[in-house]
Every structure is written in C-alpha cells, then in structure tokens.
Amino acid sequence: MKITFLGGAGTVTGSKYLLETGSSRILIDCGLFQGYKWLRRRNWQPLPFAINKIDAVVLTHAHLDHSGYLPVLYQQGFRRPVYCQQATSALCGILLPDSGHIQEEDAKYYSRHKLSRHSKPLPLYDRATAEGCLELLKPVEFDEKFTVGEATLYLQYAGHILGAGSLVVEAEGKRVGFSGDVGRPDDILMNPPQPLPELDLLLLEATYGNRRHESSDPFAQLADIVNKTAKKGGVLLVPSFAVGRAQALQHILASLIAQRRIPEIPIYLDSPMAISVSDIYCRYARHHRLNREQCHRMCEAVTYTRSVEESKTLSEQHYPHVIIAGSGMATGGRILHHFKRLLGDQSTSVVFCGYQAEGTRGAKMLNGAESVKIHGEWFSNRAQTTMLHGLSGHGDYLEIHDWLQKSALQAGTRIRLVHGSPEALDSMRDYLRRMTGFELEIAADGECLEL
Ligand SMILES: [Zn+2]
User: Fold this and answer.
1) Residue 250: phi, psi to the nearest 5?
2) Could you tell me the distance, in angstroms and rounded to a whole number, from the CA of residue 77 to the centre of ligand 1?
3) What's the whole-model pTM score?
4) What pLDDT does residue 358 have?
5) N or C: which end of the chain has fewer CB within 10 A?
6) CA of 393 to the centre of ligand 1 (A)
7) Whether 173 and 300 share a structural domain
C-alpha cells in the first residue's frame, strides 16, 4: 500500500491524499488550497496522476479545504463515485455551488479591475460545474462499510462539524486511519469524536498543535454582551461562519432567551447559506447534541432574512437587535453592509466568534483599528469589539492527545501529522513524542509513504 501527500501537508488547506493498493486508487479528501495567493495558485496546477486512474474519492467532511476541489475533477471528466457521510453530502449541496459562484464573481472582479495577466480571466470552476459534480456523491452512514476494489472503508464520527468523520481503510492486511478534522469533547453542538481502532498508520490533523482553547463560558460571555448592548440601545453585529458557528450562536441565543438571561430582542440570521445549513442541522439532529425541541427553539428564536430586500429592511430597525451574517472574518458577505452603516455608532457591538487570520478585517478590528476600509471607502470604527471564545470546531493538542489515549492504537504506531501550520506541526510532534510511544513524523508535501 502506498500513500502520497498531495495537499494539507505542511499547511492547513488543500487536503488530498492518494491511497494506492495493488488493485485500486482512492483519493482521500479533495480540498481547495485557500489563503495566500501562492497557495491558491496550486489549485490551477494539474494533479501528478491521470484522473481516470482514480477509482473513487472519499470526503471526510464538507469544508471546502477538504471538498472544494471536487468540481475541478468533475470539470476534467472524473465520473467515479465520491463517498461521504449523508450530512456531508447535504452540506456539499450548499457549499460547492456557492464556491462556484464565488469563483465566478472573483473572475469578474479580476477582469473588471484588470488584475489578471489574462485578458479574460476564467473561474477555477463555475456554479453549474459545482452543481454537476453533486451527482457523483454516494452518501453513507457512519460505521457503514463500503468497498473500493479490495479495500474496505468506513467513516466514524469525528464531531468537527455535522457529518465530519475519520476514515478507516483496510486493505492488503493493513489498516490505515485518516483523522480528518477532529472535534472537541465538550463542543456545544457536536458529540465527542469516537476513539480510533488499532491502526498501522494514522494521518493526524494538527490545526491546534501549538495552542490551547481558552476555558470560557460562551453562554455567559454572550449574555453579558447582549445585555450591555441592549442597555445602550445599540445593535450587536456577529460576523459568522455559515457551517456550525452560526448554528451554535442560534442555539446559545435561543437558550439565553428561554432562561430569561437576555431580553427578547429580535435576532436576525442574515445569510441565505447559513439559513440552509441550519435546516440541514435540524434534519440530521441524530448526529449532534440538540434534541428536536432545542432545534425547533433555535429556529423559532431567530428571524431568517434570505432575500436582499429583506436584508435591506434591517436598516429600518431603530431598537436593539442582533444580526448574524457572513463572512466569519468580515472579508466579504452581508455583514459589511451592516458595518458600513453601524460601525461609526458607539452603541454598536461587534463579536467575532472564531479564529481571525492575519491581515483580515476581523483581525484588524480586534486589534483596535479606529477606521476600517470597506468596498474601497474608509469608515470610522467606534464599535465595542470582542472575541467570543469556546466555539472552535477543532480539538486542541491536549484534547487530541486525550482522544488518542482513548483509542486502541498500540505503542509504535506510525503517525504522520498533517493539516497544521509549520509551528503547530513541530509543536504537536514534540509534545506527542514526549507523551506517547507512537512513532511520529510530520508529513512532507509530495512525500510518498510505503506500507
Ligand atoms: Zn474542517
């Protein structure tokens, strides 16, 4: 058996691992490279193998850094099955077409501003192609075994977002695990990740390899912010990621209202994508912590504004309210329109609820920027800006260590660390070498591992 690291090695995006046995070739995850331009450029480079040699793709979860390259394969003629968990399939139905739409918009933007060396820049793929590739999805249930050639595979619950799994592959007398992104023991929405079986090799994510999550109570923190903002008669703006984060916020706010810890002020979810994702979370309630009643309460507490017209009417509200809208790092999306009209007002509060990458508007605002540039114009920023902790979907290095200890992995098991910044990978390797008997290395980009 042979494994080649084609992405997600030495970086957190572009996850792609090629697994080859004597009889089959399987691509595990099919992620987009995101972030810096030199990384995104890799999305345009051809893969180092003929795609008609691939028998199947398996996705660990729906985030674009694990699924967003699938339309490129489809565009190049790939028509074999793509296995993923049922909820992942439903989420891909929203995320991939949206990604195609964004690629089209980016290409138009580059063309309009003459930012490309091509006279007519093309999108990496368009919405129609992304919709087309959905026909390849073969949804499976957690722990349901399926076969590709003589390899037997199954996904087990990983608790990172809805549908997220760790993949176990058995072939040629060996068993290999792909952790995918691993969740937390005490996540607000998701159940803890299921412990792994005995393995010969594990590819393990290291997103939080050098960081610990702050121990904080997001319910108490958010209650405090809502109450202070309401007292000032202001508006609370929450830039949010559409998958997982928006639903956690909805659940926290609904619970706080039910417990009478905050007043019953209007809450708007101003993101068509997050609204569709919330519906999927309610449909797959068996895969997270919330029961039917809590799902119902979370939807009832929030007003959904799908259309642009509905979104625009929010500017006519003159009493305290909460608006949750994309994007999570305020790099785009509807939140920017609310920023333009409300950041200059001292009674406005802004809460970021996840990691803000360097250079993003979110990071600048958290660093106290007094003015913010939006759509080419400067706006003064008088809003109270804070970070809400406790909503991350990744286990930190102690939580991952705990998860490994609960597994059936034997001393000497080979572990290759993936999906982390160079600092996170180094730190996680050193920590796990010190604390466990596993044989640890950091996976190198392009490396080919024989088993
Ligand atoms: Zn993820």
Assistant:
1) -55, -45
2) 26
3) 0.94
4) 79
5) C
6) 8
7) no
CA dihedral 122, 100, 243, 375 (to 10 degrees): 50
In this structure, the chain runs to a length of 451
Predicted pLDDT at 121 = 83
pLDDT band at 12 (very low <50, low <70, confident <90, very high): confident
CA 87, distance to chain mean position in Å, is 14
Cα 379 to ligand 1 centroid, rounded to whole Å: 33
What single string gives the DSSP state of each residue in 225-248?
HHHHHHHHT-EEEEE--TTTHHHH
Q: How confident is the model at residue 259 (pLDDT cuts 50, 70, 90)?
A: very high
The whole-chain average pLDDT of the chain stands at 95
Same domain, 235 and 348: yes
Domain end residue (candidates: 387, 403, 423): 387
d(CA 164, CA 220): 28
Is 285 found in the same domain as 178?
no
Distance 61 CA to ligand 1 centre (A): 7
Evaluate if residue 117 carries a pLDDT over 80: no
Residue 166 Cα to ligand 1 midpoint, Å, equals 12
CA 71 – ligand 1 centroid, Å: 18
Q: What's the gap in Å between 85 CA and the centre of ligand 1?
A: 14
Distance in Å, CA 34 to ligand 1 centroid:
13
Q: 348, 369, 387: which is the final residue of a domain?
A: 387
Model confidence at 34: pLDDT above 90: no
Q: Rounded to the nearest whole angstrom, what is the distance from the C-alpha of residue 16 to the centroid of ligand 1?
A: 13
Q: CA-CA distances (angstroms) from residue 362 to 50, 187, 356, 442?
A: 41, 23, 6, 31
Distance 182 CA to ligand 1 centre (A): 8
At 431-448, the pLDDT tens digits run 999 999 999 999 999 999
What domain range includes position 292? 218-387
Query: Cα(207) to centroid of ligand 1, in Å?
Result: 10
Regarding whether 90 and 16 lie in a shared domain, the answer is: yes
Q: 282: CA distance to ligand 1 center in Å?
A: 20
| Together in a domain, 160 and 271 | no
CB-CB contact of 59 with 82 (8 Å): yes
* Number of domains, the chain: 2
Which pairs with CB-CB distance under 8 Å and at least 24 residues apart come from 118-123? none
> What's the 337 CA to ligand 1 centre distance in angstroms?
27
